[in-house]
Amino acid sequence: MRIPAWTPEQKHQPQDLVDAILARRGGELMNLDRALLWSEPVARGWNVYLKNVRTGLSTSRKLCELGICTVALLTGAKYEYHHHAPDFLTAGGTQDQLDALNRVVQGDPRQPVTDAALGDIERLVVQYAAQMTRDVKVEDGLFAALQARFTTTELVELTTAIATYNMVARFLVALQITPDGEAPR
Hints:
Elements: H1 15-24, H2 31-36, H3 40-55, H4 61-75, H5 78-90, H6 95-104, H7 120-134, H8 140-149, H9 152-174
Helix pairs in contact: 1-3, 4-5, 4-7, 4-9, 7-8
């Protein structure tokens, strides 16, 4: 990390905040948490917001994780991909689909995706995440194709997951936060 890993000795944070993060993380702080905890308002807001995005959406977890993995690969957020590729698999995705995503992002995934390992909906999600990440603007034709397959709530939630993890990726990459268990660069 470009900044020191937070410790309670370096900067006191309210115990309820630390406990809430520990509860969400299964009892152990991650490298990302050790960066966020330098700011109480950021850490507190992040913990509540990301918990809702990760576990509170009704939209397909698999498709949200596919969008997140697309963002991670396109932005070089190794930490994000390290944590979300397994979540994609747990949510019903396959290793063949992750392999296809890795191939697709080597080209221009903002254009129609054709890799046969991805289904029609998965291809649209990858293209949508790529356009949101690389261009910010999304082509009308792509959005219309998404509207034909998703409810308005699903579109809002999928868009939120992709946009949120663009924010996360930028935080991770700027501060060079490495995956847990990996030596810092």
